[in-house]
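Propose amino acids for all 379 sites.
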């Protein structure tokens, strides 16, 4: 099957634990199953090839629309027409069997392009926008009506989509998958000092929940917090976290690791006693899944995909959102109980192996593509 992945903003060639990683792992696994995958994303850097074949055999096409630099969503909307035109011209020459679009900007571009060449569109919303963003809300309602099928990443998202008007019978849950050959308990371990180590991985942005982890650190002695996932230079959230840590007297126990390469992330995760994921929302849960693949227990807010990924007190611990006291209590309970921590780590690895391997989830996505493919073939 020939599959077009449309991910306008999130480029799978970049590091990240969100949509970039989801598209990357899904595309790689589909190629591993013998299918042909091309990812279409917007070129956001001057020194990048327009077309790139990855080691895992999927092709990335970096569409040259708009300035070759990161831009805001408002700026991006003005270039979606150009992006859709590029896709339509590309697909007229060689039509995919199905297009899978990720997030609302990609969905709009894919719908316009696919209509011109009669390609079915499977869409993943990856979370719905705030009600006061009328442009995005209109786009999401359109996608709910017009996409051939909707793929959600969690049951919480299914509920949100039903409220939007997406029929449950037209929705399939396909959570993100993990490369279990990379994220496994055995392997290199990053160097660490004498303190117990807590790791948090994710974007440094409002809603990351990292202030909760910093506040918890101030009432739990003998631990360090390693924050990884994004460059900290000139990042306003990183600056806020440093100010908070300085006020609480824990700046000397925080390590800003920056953007850790994907290949080195398992070693960092294996060095952790506990991994903490406390965002306000998380449609993917990939940071938790990768830690669980490494056999490391996770404490997470019960939001988005994290509510599905972790079974409380079996494969990890759930805490309320933005509750530093609850996080501190959970940290103490695990860091003072080696047996409990090891039990959770083993159960976490078993859960990821049984449900979240990228190969299994690629097969589930493929079943969705095959469901809508007859629409294409009958035209």
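Proposal:
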């Amino acid at each position: 099957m020939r599959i077009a992945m449309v991910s306008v903003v999130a480029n799978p060639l970049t590091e990240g634990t969100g949509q970039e990683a989801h598209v990357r792992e899904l595309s790689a696994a589909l190629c591993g199953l013998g299918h042909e995958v091309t990812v279409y994303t917007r070129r956001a850097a001057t020194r990048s090839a327009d077309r790139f074949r990855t080691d895992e055999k999927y092709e990335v096409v970096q569409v040259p629309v708009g300035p070759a630099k990161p831009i805001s969503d408002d700026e991006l909307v003005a270039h979606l027409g150009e992006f859709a035109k590029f896709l339509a011209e590309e697909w007229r020459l060689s039509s995919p069997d199905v297009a899978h679009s990720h997030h609302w900007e990609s969905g709009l571009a894919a719908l316009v392009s696919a209509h011109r060449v009669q390609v079915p569109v499977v869409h993943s919303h990856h979370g719905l926008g705030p009600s006061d963003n009328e442009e995005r809300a209109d786009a999401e309602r359109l996608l709910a009506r017009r996409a051939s099928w909707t793929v959600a990443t969690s049951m919480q998202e299914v509920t949100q989509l039903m409220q939007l008007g997406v029929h449950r019978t037209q929705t399939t849950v396909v959570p993100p998958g993990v490369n279990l050959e990379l994220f496994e308990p055995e392997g290199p371990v990053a160097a660490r000092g004498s303190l117990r180590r807590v790791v948090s991985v994710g974007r440094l942005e409002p809603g990351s929940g990292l202030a909760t982890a910093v506040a918890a650190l101030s009432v739990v002695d003998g631990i360090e917090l390693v924050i990884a996932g994004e460059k900290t230079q000139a990042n306003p959230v990183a600056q806020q976290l440093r100010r908070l840590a300085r006020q609480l007297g824990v700046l000397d126990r925080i390590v800003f690791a920056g953007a850790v390469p994907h290949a080195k992330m398992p070693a960092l995760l294996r060095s952790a006693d506990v991994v903490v994921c406390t965002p306000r929302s998380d449609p993917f849960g990939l940071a938790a899944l990768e830690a669980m693949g490494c056999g490391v227990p996770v404490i997470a807010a019960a939001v988005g995909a994290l509510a599905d990924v972790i079974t409380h007190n079996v494969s990890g611990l759930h805490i309320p959102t933005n509750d530093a006291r609850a996080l501190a209590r959970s940290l103490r309970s695990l860091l003072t109980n080696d047996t409990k921590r090891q039990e959770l780590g083993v159960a976490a690895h078993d859960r990821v192996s049984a449900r979240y391997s990228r190969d299994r989830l690629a097969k589930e996505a493929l079943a969705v593509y095959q469901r809508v493919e007859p629409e294409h073939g009958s035209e």
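The longest strand covers residues 36-42. The chain has a mean pLDDT of 92.
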